Amino acid sequence: VAGTGAMQLLVHNGTTLSTVTSSFSVTNLISYDLNIVSDGAGNVTLYVNGSSVATSSGGPTAGVSNAQYSLFEVENIATITSGGAQSIQLTDYFIQVNA
Question: What string of DSSP letters covers 18-50?
Answer without folding.
Answer: EEEEEEEE--TT----EEEEE-SBS-EEEEETT
